[in-house]
Amino acid sequence: MTSNAVEKAVLNQQSTAVTRNVFPDEIHQEYPSIEESRTKKAANAVHAVREFAEIIVLALIIMMVFKALIFQIYKIPSESMMPTLYPGDRILVCKCAYGIPVPFTDVSIPGLREPSRGDVVVFKFPPDHRVHYIKRLVGMPGDTIEIRNKVLYVNDEVYDVAEVQFIDPLVMPGAVSRRDNYGPITVPPNAFFMMGDNRDNSNDSRFWGLVRDNEIIGRTVMIYWSWDTKHGGFPDRFAHIRWDRIGTILVDR
Questions:
Q1: Could you tell me if 56 and 81 lie in one domain?
Q2: Distance CA 72, CA 94 (A)
Q3: How far is 123 from 38, CA to CA, in rounded Å?
Q4: 165, 83 contact by CB (below 8 A)
Q5: Alpha-carbon distance 128 to 54, whole Å?
Q6: Which of the residues 49, 103, 111, 181 could staple to 174 if both were Cys, CB 3.0 to 4.6 A apart?
Q7: Which domain holds residue 161?
Q8: From its phi and psi, is residue 50 left (phi > 0), alpha (psi between -120 and 50) or beta?
Q9: Cα gap 192→143, rounded to integer Å
């Protein structure tokens, strides 16, 4: 072997040694193995799934607290509160208006205000708490309630509600029905007298008695959606949306 050939061989060996000794880490990071790439992708996927699950759980907790303590939505199934509420109305009820019950205790956090005559109220149906009713509060504790020939008297004065309607001209005597002639009675403490605005077609305190304060769920705030449920199935109802009722505020009615 000539001297030039020997020198070239030595230079090649030195160059290879420098490359292997000076840049080992950089070469390893730039070209990771297939197994390492798969492991990293799997770890990233697990992390993404865990973050998504945490967001979903947090959203569900917030929604449950919101529903349990602040607002709840209901749909109106009957005509008992017409013309204030129609079948097909969807309403928003403020559960913190009169106080927030602490779960599993008899303690309640004070609400925004006390129940007041004229409020449209959602409450647990006294004979069956699994059922929720909506009526207008017309009698407070200590009030004397009497109905004479369809006219409501509170403390011997006529109590008028602008939204009330009568659909039956017949006046029934008290001996036949409590609908048109009732009382007088005095509302006891911690109780309320409820009536529907559709006076001739409402199952209310005239027939099943008083509502206790611990049976009240909340005050109706607004109609957030409304459509006529008498028209066919779900797709057909979009042609009968009551646009003029959506957004109606009920706190002053």
A1: no
A2: 7
A3: 58
A4: yes
A5: 38
A6: 181
A7: 73-240
A8: alpha
A9: 9
- Final residue of a structural domain among 64, 86, 102: 64
Which of these, 72, 91, 86, lies nearest to 222 by C-alpha position? 91
Residue 39, CA atoms < 13 Å, CB-side half-sphere: 5
Catalytic one among 15, 33, 135, 205? 135
Question: Is 80 labeled as catalytic in the residue annotation?
Answer: yes
Question: In this structure, are residues 125 and 131 in contact, taking their beta carbons and an 8 Å threshold?
Answer: yes
Tens digit of pLDDT for each residue in 180-204?
A: 999 999 999 999 999 999 999 999 9
Task: Assess whether pLDDT exceeds 50 at residue 25.
Answer: no
Residue 100 located in a structural domain: yes
Q: Return the higher-pLDDT residue of 140 and 65.
A: 140
Short-list 248, 149, 144, CA closest to 193: 144
Q: How many domains does the chain have?
A: 2
Over residues 150-182, the pLDDT tens digits come to 999 999 999 999 889 999 999 999 999 999 999
Residue 245 counted as domain residue: no
Q: How many CA atoms lie within 13 A of 155 on its CB side?
A: 7
- Is 70 exceeded by the pLDDT of residue 6? no
Query: 3-class DSSP state for residue 2?
Result: coil
Q: What is the mean pLDDT of residues 82-92?
A: 96
Cβ atoms 96, 69 nearer than 8 A: yes
Q: Is the pLDDT of residue 23 over 60?
A: no
Distances (CA, A) of 134 to 15, 121, 123, 194: 90, 6, 6, 9
Residue 19 scores a pLDDT above 90 = no
Q: What is the pLDDT at residue 24?
A: 46
Tokens of 93: 């009820």
Catalytic residue (one of 80, 202, 205, 226): 80
